[in-house]
Amino acid sequence: MGKSIWGCVNGSDASIHSGIGFHVDHDSKGLYTVYYKESFDVTPAVVLTQNYPNWGEFGSNGGNTKDNAVLVASDAFHFKVKTGDNNGDASDRNFSFIATDFNQ
Predict the structure, then answer these.
(1) Does the pLDDT at position 2 exceed 90?
(2) How far apart are CA 46 and CA 56, in angstroms?
(3) E strands, 1-104, where?
(4) Bridge partner list, 34
(5) For a 10 Å CB count at each end of the chain, is N or C smaller?
(6) CA gap 81, 63 in Å, rounded
(7) Global pTM exceeds 0.85
């Protein structure tokens, strides 16, 4: 049976907005490492995206489409993500992710 971990992370302080089974280190501006509490058997597929400007702000028109989150590295124990602004500069931003190994 496959395993999945999901979460929403507050960029300003790397706290967990929602989700379980992980913790986050804020390595530097716009750079985060997400550690799984229980490792996967294989490197999972990690899908992530940035949230801007904030959770639940449905009245906003959103950010620039160049605002982004990039998967930097991934293995069975953790992954690293970089978030940035519309100029491509590192910026502390909220992000959400799903890590799954489906049916390995």
Answers:
(1) no
(2) 23
(3) 4-9, 16-19, 22-28, 31-36, 45-51, 68-74, 78-84, 94-100
(4) 24, 79
(5) N
(6) 19
(7) yes
